[in-house]
Amino acid sequence: QKEDIEVTLLPAGHCPGSVMFLFEGENGTVLYTGDFRLAKGEAARMELLHSGSRVKDIQSVYLDTTFCDPKFYHIPSREECLKGILELVQSWTSLSRYHVVWLNCKAAYGYEYLFINLSQELGIKVHVNKLGMFRNMPEILYHVTTDRHTQIHACRHPRDDDCFRGNRLPCGMTYQNGTPLHIISIKPSTMWFGERIK
């Protein structure tokens, strides 16, 4: 038996290119989210989720449930996280040009919001291993660099944690102009909030 189904791709906000799927057919409407990250009120602005002035009647939602667990009592907003990271990075990097920050990012994509905002607010480009992965995201290219002589690093190495323990960055830097670097590590991870009792 054949049935026509309309499939709409909606932005998931998780990493560049990520989408949610909205399936609409004679037997109803289904939303499959996969990994997603939407700010408060963002779904209300998605016209394709609405029919006229109201949300479409969705019979089933297949929801990514990574954080659907009581232990994730509170996950701060993206804005709250950015504010905290900005304050920490600014206070550290202002101590001297030899005070550097390593953003310990485990995934390749999904940190663009953080890189862009840190660079804009502090006027410091973020060091990454390669620019190739960002070629199709021109809005970030001004904020990242392959020049290791910057104070914010998001470079990666197969054994990142071993590098950090040896007080060197994954790109291999330990000194700049003969002066040892002072490195702090920030691990941007939502999982952290589920590992804390309060």
3D structure, described in words:
It is a single chain. The protein is an alpha/beta fold. Helix content is 21%, strand content 24%. The strands form 4 sheets. A 5-stranded parallel β-sheet has the order 9-8-10-7-13. Strands 1-2-3-6 form a 4-stranded mixed β-sheet, with no helix packed on it. It has a two-stranded antiparallel sheet with strand order 4-5. A hairpin with a 2-residue loop joins strand 11 and strand 12. The chain is elongated, with a radius of gyration of 21 Å. Belongs to the DNA repair metallo-beta-lactamase (DRMBL) family. Keywords: DNA damage, DNA recombination, DNA repair, Endonuclease, Exonuclease, Hydrolase, Nuclease, Nucleus. One of its GO terms (biological process) is double-strand break repair via nonhomologous end joining. It holds the Pfam family DRMBL.
Biggest β-sheet description: 5 strands, parallel
Tally of DSSP β-strands: 13
As for the CATH topology of the largest domain, it is: Rossmann fold
Per DSSP, what share of the residues sits in E-state strands of 2 or more residues? 15-25%
Global morphology? elongated
Which consecutive residue ranges, at least 5 long each, have pLDDT under 50? none
Strand order of the largest sheet: 9-8-10-7-13
Based on CA atoms alone, the radius of gyration comes out at: 21 Å
Helix/strand class: alpha/beta
Our count of domains comes out at 2
InterPro entries: DRMBL, RibonucZ/Hydroxyglut_hydro
Family: Belongs to the DNA repair metallo-beta-lactamase (DRMBL) family.
Organism: Ramphastos sulfuratus
Main location: nucleus
